[in-house]
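Question (not urgent): is this output format expected?
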Amino acid sequence: MTTMNIHHITDLSLPEVQVYSHLTEAQLRNRLEPDKGIFICESPKVIRVALEAGCQPISILTEEKHIEGQAADIIAQCNEVPVYTGSRELLASLTGYELTRGVLCAMRRPQPKTVEEICRGKHRVVLVDSVVNSTNTGAIFRAAAALGIDAVLLTTTCCDPLNRRSVRVSMGTVFQIPWTYIPSWPHPGMEQLHELGYKTAAMALTPNAVSIDNPQLMAEDRLAIIMGTEGDGLAQKTINSCDYQVIIPMQNGVDSLNVAAAASVAFWQLRKR
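Got this back:
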């Protein structure tokens, strides 16, 4: 065994494992005391990325066969962190457990950073406004990390990036790319971005919009790409406050893309060259 701190369980209602079985996302996040918040990381690959990024593990839940298998290196790295294990039948009763490859890890939420800290020295950032779908949020993070975006800012109305599904869809990139919440949007948040030296580009279907391959837009030294909520997109007051209004040219009568797909196109086209 790689650790002696292993606990065999037969009941998911035990206090030690309720974090995996009974707590809601809001309870995990602990809005009243954010410094005590936690999140759940799923699958060995994503857990490894989180650990490499410095996230602090609290406990591990895994099938017994994985203790000396695909979770062995994780358990060794986590030293004396308690490891809870049970039968596959017991753990399969957890919603979505079959998708986790048999290993879950509860971790402490990292302390949030300021917008200034996140944006320091960054040339390309994305601001995500009111995107509430966890799958879209995770996909945006994965695209941002893969396609040249240096940091992610989110309005407080967005889905939590450390939501279990968001983390899973992102494939752990929520731990690789800097991110934080912008406290007040669009004002004074917009002014804050401008003070930090960014030109702002609203992805919006407007008559005055320029194409995403506009040479002046692509040549901006520091650019904040503003992505709006599913369905309604950006509020008019946000669009009016941006330096650019930008569209992705469409064909075959299609008027728009899903926000995560549109973000991927925008990130690739507007990356810093």
